[in-house]
Design brief:
With about 450 residues, the chain is an alpha/beta fold. The protein folds into 2 domains: about 230 residues, 3-Layer(aba) Sandwich (Aspartate Aminotransferase, domain 2), CATH 3.40.640; about 120 residues, Aspartate Aminotransferase, domain 1 (Alpha-Beta Complex), CATH 3.90.1150.170. The strands form 2 sheets. Strands 1-7-6-5-4-2-3 form a 7-stranded mixed β-sheet, with helices on both faces. A hairpin with a 7-residue loop joins strand 8 and strand 9. Helix 7 packs parallel to helix 8 and helix 11 runs parallel beside helix 13. The longest helix is centred in the C-terminal third of the chain and has 22 residues. The protein is globular. About 45% of the residues are buried.
Length: about 450
């Protein structure tokens, strides 16, 4: 396969256009040894060959989605300026582009009035959300499901917020009965609803959680770092669509443009429904803000220096692919889900494999068929290794045995977890590659079963 390089000509044209904006400056040469630079860069190219082909549809493993060419080019273009979006002094144009791009994201959830900004990723974005929750509910517990991202338990430890996990149902979603039992005990300040878990793609039942908020009065944070963009999709189940329909009722939302938003790492986003939480960020700096009385993004962010290039890339992508229902961007998401459903149906009909539940979004979990959990784990590892040698790249996932007993009644469970296989079909191209993926997967499984 050849890497896409034709767009580099467009980058040169854009660089020439941007250069016009600085034509009045006296010349200042950039000095470097071209031969030495070339040698190091070619060495970098050789080192970078030792990566999984994340950009290719044959990579169907971890949650990795290649940036759109416009994002890649806009990011590179901005690096000739290297803006810093902490303050308008460091990133005048890119800060305005960030505000516009974040406003577009907020509108996906129906928010016109909000507080929000980009971050270096979902971890920092969630940290800000939980930090605000801790400030507003000091000393009270934060609850998240057992299948929520591990970052929540880590962050609460850093912030000294009491944390408790809530059991899941057999579809990997927060168990509403268990949640209400815990809420009845009191002392809960925040509940985290996972809108697309990074393990299975499960969506917590948001409507039921919102009903419990009315009854028990807690703050609701929606961690939709992975699944948030699916608010634009029209091919979800009615149950899942109902959760997305009410996502705008959360108190805070995290979404990662570097997942389904077609952006380079790292680009996360935190949004607060109530703009007044900005008062919690208040600080004084004798030197950072001096060029404008307009809001500097560093005034509403725990992070200081942040790459303005991320905002430029995101703005360019959303300009090319508006985030609207029925648009090209939304159709790409729907193709990802279609690919996951296609793969799941094939797995479910094949006697060589065990399935659990249909994918809610675009992540599929399954395992080689066996009667003992230790054998399932061994075969999963063998299939993972063997498939990679055949250029099919999957992922391993350790799944709780207690959530599998209903789905796999004929399996004897010998440990608390079982090694399963996991595929994130996050590339729209995956919808056109399911035949290829299936033939490679089935052929590999037949080979190790002999």
């Amino acid at each position: 396969m050849k890497l896409e390089k034709e767009s580099l000509g467009i980058l040169r044209e854009a660089l020439d256009r941007m250069e016009e904006g600085f034509a009045g400056l006296p010349d200042a040469e950039v000095h470097y040894d071209a031969d030495a630079l070339r040698g190091v860069l070619l060495e970098v190219a050789d080192r970078m060959k030792d990566n999984y082909p994340y950009f290719h549809p044959c990579y169907a493993g971890q949650m990795l989605k290649p940036p759109h060419p416009v994002a890649r080019l806009a990011y590179m273009l901005s690096m000739w300026v290297n803006p810093n979006n902490h303050a308008l002094d460091g990133g005048k144009a890119s800060s305005h582009m960030e505000k516009e791009a974040v406003a577009d994201i907020a509108r996906m959830f129906g928010w016109e009035s909000y507080l929000g900004h980009l971050s270096s990723g979902g971890t920092m974005a969630n940290l800000e959300a939980l930090w605000v929750s801790g400030k507003l509910n000091p000393g009270k517990k934060l609850l998240a499901s057992e299948q929520a991202h591990y970052t929540h338990s880590r962050i609460t430890e850093v912030l000294h917020i009491p944390f408790e996990s809530v059991p899941c149902d057999n579809r990997s979603r927060m168990d509403m009965g268990a949640l209400e039992d815990r809420l009845k005990k009191g002392d809960v300040g925040t509940v985290v609803a996972t809108i697309g878990s990074t393990g299975t793609g499960a969506v917590d039942p948001l409507s039921a959680i919102l009903d419990l908020r009315e009854k028990y009065g807690f703050r609701l944070h929606a961690d939709s770092a992975y699944g948030g963009y699916y608010v634009l999709a029209d091919n979800l189940t009615p149950e899942t669509a109902a959760s997305y329909k009410r996502l705008g009722e959360a108190d805070s939302i995290v979404i990662d443009p570097h997942k389904h938003g077609l952006q380079p790492y790292g680009c996360g986003c935190i949004l607060f429904r109530d703009p007044s939480v900005g008062t919690l960020y208040k600080h004084d700096s004798p030197y950072t803000y001096f060029s404008s009385s307009e809001l500097h993004l560093g005034e509403i962010s725990l992070e200081c220096s942040r790459a303005g290039a991320s905002a430029v890339a995101l703005w360019a992508t959303q300009r090319l692919l508006p985030m609207t229902r029925g648009g090209e961007f939304a159709r790409g998401l729907m193709k990802c889900r279609d690919a996951a459903l296609d793969l799941y149906r094939r797995l479910e009909a094949e006697p060589l494999f065990l399935t659990m539940f249909p994918p809610e979004l675009d992540i599929v979990i399954w395992a080689p068929k066996a009667t003992r959990s230790s054998e399932i784990s061994r075969l999963s590892q063998e299939l993972f290794d063997k498939a990679a040698t055949n250029d099919l790249h999957l992922a391993l996932f350790s799944y709780p045995s207690k959530l599998l007993k209903d789905a796999w009644p004929d399996v004897t469970f010998e440990a608390d977890t079982v090694a399963c296989l996991r595929s994130c079909l996050m590339k729209p191209d995956h919808a056109d590659w399911t035949d290829h993926i299936w033939e490679a997967l089935k052929g590999t499984m037949q080979a190790i079963s002999r």
